Amino acid sequence: MTHPIIVTGPQRAGSRLAAHIISRDSKRLFIDELNYSPSLPDNSVVQAPFLLKVLMEISFMFPTAQFAFMYRNKVDIIKSMERIEWYKDYIDNPSFYSDYIDHCYALIDSAKAYLPDHRWFDIQYESLFHDPLFTHDRSSFTVKQHLPDTPYGPITWRNDDYIRSTTE
What we know:
single chain; alpha/beta; 29% helix
């Protein structure tokens, strides 16, 4: 049976790369979190850390979907968040990044408690290192996910000025 695969976990844990790899290897349609909609095709792989917050609802909306949960070393996630100043427009509390990651992994643990085993699998960030899509030097990458005065977008979760770019 064909079913969507939703790759989720904490932001900066590698969901984008993992989703691209799964999409390529399974010949499925890659869907970026910015293009997610409830009319998700069965043959898709969705990169969507933001869906972790509503995973229970998504599991019922898509009763055959599988979930790929990303795991990455917490210190490395924090370094990545600091490098791109993730959420710095809104939150400057020094414990936010650590608490955010702990919360995400608690949500994953909770999801695993109610999802049948065949509906989820784990991906360790380190397992992606040898794939040709993996970029070892990310020093020129910058991601500004939330811009001042626009903390919302389609309905509630993002803004339309979201950008991904590399610095030149």
